[in-house]
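Late entry, evening session. Most of the bench is empty. Finally got around to the prediction I had been postponing all week. Sequence below, unchanged from the version circulated by S.P.
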Amino acid sequence: MRAKVAETPYHGRRAMPSAPHTPPAAHLLAHAAAQLESHGIVNPQLEVAVLLAHALSIDRAQLYTRLRHPVPLQQAATFWHYVQRRLRREPLQYITGVQEFWSMALQVDQRVLIPRPETELVVEVAVRLLRQHPSPLPVKIVDVGTGSGCIAIALAKELPHAEVWATDISSAALAVARENAQQHGVMNRITFLHGDLCIPLPREVDFDMLVANLPYIAHEDLVALQPEVRDWEPWSALDGGRDGLDCYRRLIDQGPRVLRPGGWLVMEIGDGQRAAMLYLLQQQPELTAVSCLADYAGLDRVLVARRAEIV
């Protein structure tokens, strides 16, 4: 026989059964952080907070005000699913589907490389050069190997009068870049082209600047990368060939064809590649190395070259 549900004394209405809950959020966070730490994951407390906030569809500031509150079972189950994915070393950004870059929340998944904070230096340098050396409007910029579109979108937002182009050999990556451009309101200002490096660019357009963050990891070094990178991120966005510079050799060869005289080439490079890149530029008579800037870790990160002016 089904048990009767007791009536509340308030107007005789039946009491609504409360939703089942787990222990408080703080308990879930502590337990999950211990698991991540045991698997060698750095910053486990931060990561589990990000995952629980994502499961609850709130931000971390809101989460920290609810640490004593129980978590509904459905959201707790989602959280533990996220934790299991992270224990398999899936990147946090692929689990949440978001990575912040240049104060923008960008969509990311396994179709694209996760934007790194040091890549913001490419944007910073590009913007500074174009403001210090203004060109006739509209300024024309191309982001070669755009991936998630992070550089192209940041430049479009920083330089509202610029015409931005973006190429990528991966049609899947371009789909992500287009979605990000649409989300951040610059889709109508970026021309996306599918193809290898500068090849899809129209010959009749002379660009004021070419920016690039291309694969620069030597092929034999890929196996030594962290599991989050080696096992999850697209190798096509990482593998730079025997010495890591295969893509840059071709870019330096193609660059003068698309840059106007006096145009800029701004490239992200890997640690220890400065000398080899300078040598490659010396072999291209139409390009001259201008500077190499270090990131906040003190590593050579952005190499700037310029196409010779017509005398």
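Two things to note before I forget:
The first strand starts at residue 21 and ends at 24.
Confidence is low (pLDDT under 50) at residues 1-19.
Will write this up properly tomorrow.
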